[in-house]
Amino acid sequence: MFYIYCPYCAEYREEEEFHPKGQAHIARPLDPMATSDDAWGDYLFFRDNPRGVHHELWVHAVGCRKFFNVTRDTRTYAILETYRIGEQPSVTADSVSTGSAASTATLTGVQA
Amino acid sequence: MSELQQRRVAAGAGLGLEIDRDRPLAFTFNGKAYQGYAGDTLASALLANGVDVVNRSFKYSRPRGVVAAGAEEPNAIVQLGASEATQTPNVRATQQALYEGLTARSTNGWPDAQRDMMSLIGKVGGPFMPVGFYYKTFKAPASMWLTYEKMIRKAAGLGRAPSEGDPDIYDHVHRHCDVLVIGSGPTGLFAALTAAKSGARVILCDEQERFGGSARDSDETLDGVPAPHWVAQIVERLAAMDNVTLLVRTTANGYFDHNFVTLHERRTEHLGDSAAMTGGRRQARSRLHRVRARHVVLATGAHERPLVYAGNDVPGNLLAGAVSSWIRRQAVRPGERLVLSTTNDTAYRAALDWQAAGGEVVAIADARANPEGAMVERARAAGMRIIAGSAVIEATTDRKGHRVNGARVAAVDIAGHRIDGSIETLVCDTVASSGGYSPVVHLAAHTGVRPVWRDDILGFVPGQTVAPVKGFHPVGAAAGVYSLGMAFDAIAEHLPAALAADGIALAPSAPPQLETLAQGEAVGLYHVPHDKPTMRAPKQFVDLQNDVTAAAIELATIEGFESIEHVKRYTAMGFGTDQGKLGNINGMAIAARCLGQTIPETGTTVFRPNYTPVNFGAIVGRHCGELFDPERYTAMHQWHVEQGAAFEDVGQWKRPWYYPRQKASGERETMHEAVARECRAVREQVGVLDASTLGKIDIQGPDAREFLGRIYTNGWEKLAVGKARYGLMCKDDGMVMDDGVTTCLADNHFLMTTTTGGAAAILEWLEIWHQTEWPELEVYFTSVTDHWATMTLTGPEARNLLSELTDIDLDREAFKFMEWREGTVAGVPARIYRISFTGELSFEINVQANYAMPVWEALFAHGDQYGLTPYGTETMHVLRAEKGFIIVGQDTDGSMTPEDLGMQWCVGYNKPYPWIGKRALTRSDTRREDRKQLVGLKPLDAEVVLEEGAQIVLDPKQAIPMRMVGHVTSSYYSPTLDHGFALAVVKGGHKRLGERVYLPMADGVTHVAEVVSSIFFDPKGQRQNL
Amino acid sequence: MTRVAYFDPHPAPTVPRQSPLHHMAEIAPTGDVAVTLREHAFRDHLNLRGEPGVLASAVESVTGLALPLEPQQVVFGDGTSLQWLSPDEWLLIVPGGEGFRLQRELRKALGDAHFSIVDVSGGQTLLSLEGEEAISVLMKSTVYDVDPRHFPVGKGVTSVFAKANAIIRRVDDTRWELVVRRSFADYCLRWLLDAGEEFGIAFQRAEHEVDAREAAPAGEAEMTT
Amino acid sequence: MQRYSGFSLVKHALSHHENWQRHWRNPAPKKEYDVVIVGGGGHGLATAYYLAKEHGITNVAVIEKGWLGGGNTARNTTIVRSNYLWDEAAALYEHAMKLWEGLSQDLNYNVMFSQRGVLNLGHTLQDMRDIQRRVNANRLNGIDGEVVTPERIKEIEPALDVSARARYPILGASWQPRGGVARHDAVAWGFARGADALGVDLLQQTEVTGFKMLDGKVVGVHTNRGDIGAKTVGCVTAGNSGTLAKMAGFQLPLESHPLQALVSEPLKPILNTVTMSNHVHGYISQSDKGDLVIGAGIDGYLGYGQRGSFSIVEHTLQAIVEMFPVFSRVRMNRQWGGIVDTTPDACPIISRTPVRGLYFNCGWGTGGFKATPGSGNVFAWSLAHGQMHPIAAPFSIDRFRTGALIDEHGAAGVAH
Ligand SMILES: Cc1cc2nc3c(=O)[nH]c(=O)nc-3n(C[C@H](O)[C@H](O)[C@H](O)COP(=O)(O)OP(=O)(O)OC[C@H]3O[C@@H](n4cnc5c(N)ncnc54)[C@H](O)[C@@H]3O)c2cc1C
Ligand SMILES: NC(=O)c1ccc[n+]([C@@H]2O[C@H](COP(=O)([O-])OP(=O)(O)OC[C@H]3O[C@@H](n4cnc5c(N)ncnc54)[C@H](O)[C@@H]3O)[C@@H](O)[C@H]2O)c1
Ligand SMILES: Cc1cc2nc3c(=O)[nH]c(=O)nc-3n(C[C@H](O)[C@H](O)[C@H](O)COP(=O)(O)O)c2cc1C
Ligand SMILES: [Zn+2]
């Protein structure tokens, strides 16, 4: 039962208010018609599914109805940060494994 | 009757701190009447009355009695309940407070636990039922397994479920706090007080009937007063603080992510069978507190470990600490002559208390070569015989196995796992044992944290927490700190700092003062050796509830089950309702020895919620019965109810399905009759449908039109203000996901309608594309589903009727098909859409929902002369199907493209923006010619209504498995066509028009149908343009 | 160019109306009632969407209420309230009959900017929950933390309410308001009555509400640009 | 292999059970195997067993990072049925069903396959359309099953509330009498014992950490116990398949989610059959030990923690009490979670991969236990022949690129 910081409501809310929406930062190909069948299949169906740090999209469905991003460890379920659409994560698999960044995250959603 | 309480120590000895001898309570067990006192548990009351055999064991049907005083009890599992509806299976007698009229039975044993017939099987068959025997037998013949299985099932199980519904209610409370303290022993109380003084929100819970934990019956002095008094003082102080919530009889059962903890508060289970009404109001029998805590203090103490020796399951074998608890709390001394077998000092208290309660201490077998320490000295001073370096290797019993009658004591070589020297048999009726303590780490483990073994305390403690578990503080015995003074110091030192780091400022609290006793070091003994090898010795039980013996564990390892998880699953160790609270560590230690490993190498199995079992009702709370799931109503709902409508569940909505009328004969119409009548009314006169449940989304903004063009498959560029258009929506895989009519209200303003079931999902769909992919588009979406009540007036007389009520010019030229107008209907401002889902002349009237009823009633007030008939979803389905209009979710299943549906006319191939779904339509699979395509089916026999879901074949003569080419998606009898007809999807169907297909049915009949156009009625669409 | 179509949905006051809870029986405040529930139906509810920079001054000048910019903030005026729902969404509740005029004035004040105003008055209703156990009833109903330490007067949130959603806001020390959707109103009310049973709960229907339209003459139903 | 029978039990009782043989050896890894199976769950073990038994390929290792059968095989609600909607899926699960029917005898190990029947309830008109569609398709595919009325449901499962009181009254059900449950651990152990007896090496506590490749072909695996050579590698690692695919340099259309289950305390027999409801979402049966085994829902987020949200448990029990109000006083004993590998079309992947010699069998998601013997059987055939078994062929990864999904989401109901 996660306690999730909504970067728009600027407070922690209970998991029941949110819906997970899969992997974050999956941009639709700009020119779909020029995208190969394989690449289109990848866009539709193929995901990172990492065991570890994952950037995912959530929506504060029963709340402000905004979509936002969550960086979460899929092994421990620790939420490392949350950040708005259009922003880039400050915590990544690389930053975690090299031990940098996490603490310097300045985005609104860093879990206290 | 109180003379029956033969094991109750007389008043005057200062024992029985918690019972009220002035409040006797009558209860029955296995049909026999007994008496106990207020303050008893069912277990202490049974012991007081000398009831030794409380149950029969699971596999061998051996007599079993109470062994423990708390949540760890494996044996005394009873069926509670005085009536059928209040039958409660598998209640731990040790955690059930006694109340007047309590009615309990053993869960196993026939005819009862005393004289059980199954025990014969246990005795005779026992040797042939080693662990895992069922995997090795009952295989032949295969057909017999179900029969064998029935027998096995009958013999298994504990209590039984009631056959009537639960008379009680349960509820939930959502709580948030700064500090949740689980366990109210001395450490929990001190931690709670420390935190509470800061003003922080504190919750303190304890599973027991009272606060205090081990301090309830401790003989220590805290801050200068006896421990039980100290408890009372602290509780009183806490109760006076408005930032503290005290929850007694409340078990923390699950510790979930990010410090979410479930607490189950038993509110009335100590009072009676069923929760009584208070002042005419229902009270919840129990309450689930769903707690989100910033910090969790785990002060759950430690469970004493019994020793594993032969015959250790016979009634009269008890946990040492439990013996003390009963004597001190309830003045119950459960026997006459005690032999204590221990590995540590603490257990000596049982012997001292036994003696103080007037019992005889025959001997103390201490596994340590040189027991020393304050408690040992006290025992010596009291004249007790201490046999050093020894242990009870076997408890002997009377012939029936109903009670211990002796203890065989021998010197034990722990390292060599053998006995040394001769065996002495002592006459006794009670063997109390203590093999040390296991910190209650269960909750910590729920979050995925593995316990860590500590050699110094011979137990597992909570492991280092991983990231998501922040603010987690094990303290006291739960943390493996068995010296209370050290535990207090640790709390005083670390808790303020931990909370301060989270902004909760604490004033330092002085740890309570106490006198510490010198303790001798304990030894680790888990499985007491016997003079015979384990496999040949009398049974030495590890898991009493599941009848798992040391031999079973050894056999499992012999058979190659080397992981402790395999051992668990092969032997069922720890699978019981007690989840191995007593036996697991011993079992792991035995497995470790058999495998030549250390205990930490062997590791623990995983502790999971619940800490103790919780009834389903308590977890369900009020989400049952009429509150199980919301029923959504339209503004006209009451009217439909009054008209006797039958309802259909569509999502959470209740929609009128059809309106059966009273026939002249006095009978109610069947659905078929009602629907035929409603259909004819629409086709011939006029009908009205409550269409309010359709999803409605208000879309405003300069880019609304562009947005629609990207989301829908068809074009919106040219839709003029005042006009409406049907649209299809696909996912990006090209499959149809929703449809509906969208109207251009003004240049920057559209109203989208969605399917009833799809409304919420479509709004979210629009938002996700807008927020994540096209934030630059200036457009906003707002749900107006509930705001508008919608009435579809349809049929040739629709215009005539409506014109009586509206100021809008309804002339066919002034207000064309697929247009909308604003005006009033029956004096109520309305928007009217000329759209049609029936194929008839239709006006969809929308008014603000608070004003729906006057309009609806006005329609009926004027409708008689036109034959106005209300119709439901079934008629709506027939009418739309006659027109070949699809229902997404019925005629589609997530695998149909617009082209499969024959709706190329609704696909804007040349739209500039690559709209959602477009790319997928050119993938190889979506281009296949033999895809399933939507067609009409006309059964050759006009009377036949094909079954929805019937499968279609081309060759009815082929053998099974048949090649199926599609199925019927919608099928009805058309009163208009006087013919059954259907919509279906058929492979390559669009090219099969005129062909015959076959539908072989379960009853052996094969229907024949012709593939036809999916439009059965008014193919040119003239009627809606009237 | 007609950018947006909107109209006054209210008929003349003589036309009867039905609140979403019209069918539920009242429960008189007998015995020791610790919670009182009232429906305040027939108010006008407007959903405002737009960037704060676009909306703020216009909203303030038209409604007299400062647009709350902090998340979870509600401001209350005389019979009116304005609540933050999301960074670009607010709920304006005004006495019944005033919504249309306000919408017209707001639209005028906002001019060509990009925003949206949607009348949702028929789609939701306002309930108040009052009394010493009001918090206890809420604690049984929502996962949101309603403790006064966390939920001061002037706060409002959208959260889970039993198996539906609700807007929950705190008007003063003992008074709370709930905004629930019309189609879920029956369920929410049943839930509340059930949750309040142990404390003693009374329910008053909407009839007791004063109708602003009776005070002011009804505006014509007017089509606007 | 030591034969098990009632007679052998008697014989061993005389020697106090001191002489039973191991179920399987604990061998040291060889340098190289003809086939390496990664993942010692039910499917991996079945694959190894059938490789040895039906294809004579015995130089095989099963590499398991933990203990045999400790993944989803240890965690599932053990429902076995074959009444799937689409032809491809029906063929696969019915193939498995036929193997289940003789499995205890074939393995000389009682897997307690109990054909007590499976009910899939319908609560809405659309549920009933879907049920009819599926049952009709099953019948024409030669799979047993019928559509039953509420009255008949009550006869089959008397504890179920089929009255109109319910929020979503039961309108009917599909009934597959040949469906049922099996003892999940025994399935893994039976296949393991069978494979071991035929010479397969079962390497426990051995984790594959990477693949050895040569010219785009797999030639072995790296493990925490050193490198092991292999001519062919089959990965059967359920929730961890995505991680292994990444090691081999490609992605799979998989997401790993928490799926939970729970059990009540043991009760005297009260349920006769398996009852599943997609609409109110819960499914339940009673184990031979007496506990009610209840399937909870899947969490929407990725999770490798083998645990899920409490609210899923709450919703599941709400559904169970709605269907069986008499269980209100029955108590929940334990809950747990597994990591299920879900595909976009709720159908498995049994496929070649971009790496030659490397095959994957995964994506069984929430419902692969029932397929265990069938999956192992067709996968073994495919590994042995170097080409996909006809029943497995439609389940290739390619379908996610061509779009030829086999969509069991639509009409098949809950996937268990
Ligand atoms: C709660 C729950 C309920 C379910 N209910 C049902 C049901 O009722 N009916 C049904 O049919 N199905 C059900 N399922 C699904 C079913 O359990 C699975 O589909 C099936 O058991 C998968 O078997 P498997 O052998 O493929 O995977 P698993 O049993 O998970 O085996 C995979 C093995 O691979 C090992 N592994 C992973 N990575 C590595 C590595 N790098 N190196 C070495 N080994 C590795 C793992 O340790 C594991 O043992 C349920 C699943 C869950 C979680
Ligand atoms: N010398 C030894 O070997 C030894 C060993 C163990 C304990 N002790 C002594 O025992 C005392 C331990 O004090 P403590 O405060 O740590 O523990 P405690 O045993 O006094 O209290 C623990 C309390 O937690 C409750 N509890 C456990 N699990 C719970 C749950 N899930 N939900 C709700 N309540 C739960 C228990 O019922 C109990 O009341 C100390 O005095 C210590 O010295 C000594
Ligand atoms: C069909 C089935 C029945 C189970 N029955 C019980 C049971 O009666 N008692 C119990 O404690 N656990 C039972 N379990 C759960 C296991 O103890 C264990 O939780 C599960 O295998 C997952 O493993 P883990 O909890 O060690 O991670 C059962 C599991 C399954 C799959
Ligand atoms: Zn938010």
TrEMBL record, chain A:
<feature type="region of interest" description="Disordered">
    <location>
        <begin position="93"/>
        <end position="112"/>
    </location>
</feature>
<dbReference type="Pfam" id="PF04267">
    <property type="entry name" value="SoxD"/>
</dbReference>
<dbReference type="InterPro" id="IPR038561">
    <property type="entry name" value="SoxD_sf"/>
</dbReference>
<protein>
    <submittedName>
        <fullName>Sarcosine oxidase subunit delta</fullName>
    </submittedName>
</protein>
<dbReference type="InterPro" id="IPR006279">
    <property type="entry name" value="SoxD"/>
</dbReference>
UniProtKB/TrEMBL annotation, chain B:
<dbReference type="InterPro" id="IPR029043">
    <property type="entry name" value="GcvT/YgfZ_C"/>
</dbReference>
<keyword id="KW-0560">Oxidoreductase</keyword>
<dbReference type="InterPro" id="IPR006277">
    <property type="entry name" value="Sarcosine_oxidase_asu"/>
</dbReference>
<dbReference type="InterPro" id="IPR006222">
    <property type="entry name" value="GCVT_N"/>
</dbReference>
<feature type="domain" description="GCVT N-terminal">
    <location>
        <begin position="636"/>
        <end position="911"/>
    </location>
</feature>
<dbReference type="InterPro" id="IPR028896">
    <property type="entry name" value="GcvT/YgfZ/DmdA"/>
</dbReference>
<feature type="domain" description="FAD/NAD(P)-binding">
    <location>
        <begin position="178"/>
        <end position="449"/>
    </location>
</feature>
<dbReference type="Pfam" id="PF07992">
    <property type="entry name" value="Pyr_redox_2"/>
</dbReference>
<dbReference type="Pfam" id="PF08669">
    <property type="entry name" value="GCV_T_C"/>
</dbReference>
<dbReference type="Pfam" id="PF17806">
    <property type="entry name" value="SO_alpha_A3"/>
</dbReference>
<dbReference type="InterPro" id="IPR023753">
    <property type="entry name" value="FAD/NAD-binding_dom"/>
</dbReference>
<keyword id="KW-0808">Transferase</keyword>
UniProtKB/TrEMBL annotation, chain C:
<protein>
    <submittedName>
        <fullName>Sarcosine oxidase subunit gamma</fullName>
    </submittedName>
</protein>
<dbReference type="InterPro" id="IPR007375">
    <property type="entry name" value="SoxG"/>
</dbReference>
<dbReference type="InterPro" id="IPR027266">
    <property type="entry name" value="TrmE/GcvT-like"/>
</dbReference>
<dbReference type="Pfam" id="PF04268">
    <property type="entry name" value="SoxG"/>
</dbReference>
<dbReference type="InterPro" id="IPR006280">
    <property type="entry name" value="SoxG_het"/>
</dbReference>
From TrEMBL, chain D:
<keyword id="KW-0963">Cytoplasm</keyword>
<dbReference type="InterPro" id="IPR001763">
    <property type="entry name" value="Rhodanese-like_dom"/>
</dbReference>
<dbReference type="InterPro" id="IPR036188">
    <property type="entry name" value="FAD/NAD-bd_sf"/>
</dbReference>
<comment type="similarity">
    <text>Belongs to the SoxB family.</text>
</comment>
<keyword id="KW-0547">Nucleotide-binding</keyword>
<keyword id="KW-0274">FAD</keyword>
<protein>
    <recommendedName>
        <fullName>Sarcosine oxidase subunit beta</fullName>
        <ecNumber>1.5.3.24</ecNumber>
    </recommendedName>
</protein>
<dbReference type="Pfam" id="PF01266">
    <property type="entry name" value="DAO"/>
</dbReference>
<keyword id="KW-0285">Flavoprotein</keyword>
<dbReference type="InterPro" id="IPR006076">
    <property type="entry name" value="FAD-dep_OxRdtase"/>
</dbReference>
<feature type="domain" description="Rhodanese">
    <location>
        <begin position="35"/>
        <end position="79"/>
    </location>
</feature>
<dbReference type="InterPro" id="IPR006278">
    <property type="entry name" value="SoxB"/>
</dbReference>
